Amino acid sequence: MIDVNRKGEVWVFAEQQDGALSEVPLELLGKGRELAEKLSVKVAAILPGDKIDGLVAELSAHGADKVYVVQGSKLRDYQTNSYTKVLCDLIIKHKPQIVLYGATAIGRDLAPRVASAMKAGLTADCTDLQIEDFEIPRTKEVHRNLLQQIRPAFGGNIIATIVNYDRWPQMATVREGVMAQPERNGKLSADVITEKVDLPSDLFPLEVIERHREKRKVNLKASRIIVAGGAGVGSKERFQLVWDLANVLGGAPGASRAAVDLGFIDKDYQVGQTGTTVRPALYIAVGISGAVQHCAGMSESAKIIAINNDAEAPIFQLAHYGIVGDMEDVIPRLIKAIRTRQ
Fold first, then answer.
1. pTM of the predicted protein model
2. From CA 5, how far away is CA 21, in angstroms rounded?
């Protein structure tokens, strides 16, 4: 049996822009702590940027035992080369055994650069992470306490478990929303380690003069009620019924990828494997067949209601309640019943 547990820490890249943390590192701290406790090590956040002192308390309140801070005006704006240098230098110095990133635009850009520089493996878009022993089938060697990196593969038709037993740190990007964010605890206090990294001018081939960021039209992860439409809705005009039901319930509209691809609604509203993962109190699926890729993003909803004119649609196997019928008949009746009760 080979023990590869180096007692290195579990790290979470604390992505921030304009001095504001994204939600995904806070989600990852919850899973990071779970992994770290199983390994009997610390969980740490890596926080590069400029004027970011105020973010330390938030990372601490969400479970970080340590926060490594690298601060300077050169790190004000994310650039691949400079942030890669920061991560690589800290990894070489402190030797973590696991490094986690959010599968955001920045995480998907940064993680492979760091993995390549460190000659380490990287699994993208994970939906779960576990610590388990692993036996190599060919040699029967057993490696203890490896990171099991779990993700859908082949269009969501299988769930693959990926391990990296000979190149460390073990690295993964994790999709937004798939890990439950731990509750904030303001009584927690992390150790703050200030680091300095040499950043020569040749790391900055670009000068950021001005930035424009388009805000998301909806925050599906924060919505307690979501009414989502699929390809079965039939048209952009008929999709208005989905909006109407969401509005009367005080919820948010959502959609399957098929509905987005057909132009019924913008991509910001997409739920599923390639969209947003949600856990609302109530999820109403209208005209959604129930493909694995969509269900992966909403299966943990507290209550699921399916409305579909196909009684054999797979979504009914997941739903707590099902209504077989035409949405143009069912939804107006629901809206009338809700308004009458109000």
1. 0.80
2. 30
